[in-house]
Amino acid sequence: MLRALKAAFFLRWPVKGLGDVPVNVLALTCVGVLGLANPGFWFAGLGLETVYLATLATNQRFLRWVAAQDKVVEEGSVAEKLRALTNQLAPDDRRAMDQLNDQCRRIESLWRSGDEFQLETNQQALRDLEWLYLKLLIARAHLRGAEAQGDALKVEGDIKILERELANVQLTQALRESKTATLAILKKRAENFLRRQQSLGEIASDLARIQAQVELVLENATLEGKPQAVSTNVDLASQTLDAGFFGASADDVADVDAAYSQASPARTRA
């Protein structure tokens, strides 16, 4: 309702020679000026504005228009973030992403003559597979980064230094407790780095699995020429990746996740 009221208040109307004019704002400005001479215009303007806003904010056609405008803005924002995330990939990863996108577009072109509802559902399923593939590429790039590798080596070195220092029997109790606590933290970080190496293996397997899934859908579309239920449940080993695996891209990844989760398709198994 608030979104509809805001849209009605700032509604623009095309005027020849002036372009899109915010007619309601302009009318209120005129009423405000007239009210300086006669306050009665203010009361009249308030009444007319209330009727105007209530009428538009409850009009189903206007509400559909507002929803359509919001969708255009949201899709444009998501598309912009997707382009930015893709452009951050290394050349080889970008080529892999482009290849998967091309396959999905070929699939959709083969589906055009099919049932419209099934087509829309499957398009969303393909979109989810493309997005998951991009997220995996982003996570892998971050895990492979020189920063992560350098941190792992430094932590290993710091652990060895602390272990040697703790072997010194002359340490005071307070200093020993402090170094022991620091050592525990470093060992936890070392476990996290080990987990990163395991995640790289899982991500590589999951990327191959998504590629195989899309190739299967393409083969079925080529043979059948009509949409079949597309599965996005590929039981990925790495689907528990959290924001820490996306580095500086974590905020954009979260934004796209949020946008896509608002209208996710029904999941079916192939």
Describe this structure as you would to a colleague.
- The protein is mainly α.
- It has a domain at 91-261.
- It has helices at residues 2-9, 23-37, 40-57, 60-87, 91-111, 116-144, 146-166, 173-224, 250-261, and strands spanning 13-15, 19-21.
- Strands 1-2 form a two-stranded antiparallel sheet.
- A hairpin with a 3-residue loop joins strand 1 (13-15) and strand 2.
- Helix 4 (60-87) runs antiparallel to helix 9 (250-261) and helix 5 packs parallel to helix 8.
- The protein starts with a helix and ends in a 9-residue tail after the last helix.
What global shape is seen? flat
Q: Determine the strand fraction and express it as a percent band.
A: under 5%
Largest beta sheet: what is the strand line-up? 1-2
The whole-angstrom Rg is: 29 Å
Written as H for each helix and E for each strand, in order along the chain, the element string is HEEHHHHHHHH
The termini sit apart by 40 Å
Query: Which regions are unreliable across 5 or more consecutive residues at pLDDT < 50?
Result: 263-270
For the secondary structure, the number of strands is 2
The structural class is mainly alpha
Q: How would you sum up the major sheet?
A: 2 strands, antiparallel
List keywords for this structure.
single chain; 270 residues; mainly alpha; two-stranded antiparallel sheet; 9 helices
Secondary structure blueprint with pairings:
Layout: H1 2-9, E1 13-15, E2 19-21, H2 23-37, H3 40-57, H4 60-87, H5 91-111, H6 116-144, H7 146-166, H8 173-224, H9 250-261
Antiparallel strand pairs: 1-2
Helix pairs in contact: 1-3, 2-3, 4-9, 5-6, 5-8, 6-8, 7-8
